[in-house]
Design goal:
About 65% of the residues lie in helices and about 5% in strands. It has about 190 residues and is mostly helical. A two-stranded antiparallel ribbon has the order 1-2. Helix 4 packs antiparallel against helix 5. The longest helix is centred in the middle third of the chain and has 29 residues. The chain is elongated and about 50 Å long.
Length: about 190
Amino acid sequence: MQYYGEYPYMSDQYNMINSMMGDYTWMPRYPLPDRRMPDPYSYPGNLPMAIQLIAEAIASEREDELFYDYLLKNAPSEEDKSIITSIRDDERKHFGLFRQIYSELTCRMPPTPQEPEITLPASYCEGVKKALFGELSAIEKYRRILYALQDRVQINKLIEIITDEIKHASKWNYLYTKNECFEEEGTED
């Protein structure tokens, strides 16, 4: 066995396999991906999808801000209001960061989002639950945008947004637990 650095390579077995394979030295061990669908991991093919997701994110961040304003007005305690205010302020920051990234990628201003219609929850706890799952969904969407970015500054901005969304999900989970929202769900059956 030969060693290169820290990793052993079994050159005898490798040579034997190559001689058995003839000219076919590379064969996939798994099916190749269907290239008709956009690959979310490969630049530049994923860039158009990312630009569309950024435009959706701009509209979504504005919607989140308005929804959190509603929750803020219905928060049962000052601690809840303080937490929701910090989340809402981050959403405002994300709105600006996404607009910057969109402009840098397209050399155009992003489309102005229409004023969203907010569906009000039946209760504060239902709103907290909706906010929690909204943050988790946003993380998945924003990760797909991250795959298309090449510029380090844009990547840093998006990582800040994603880590804020993770932090928000934890805060919403805290509010859900603190306000014993799980008990409210149990009584609806």
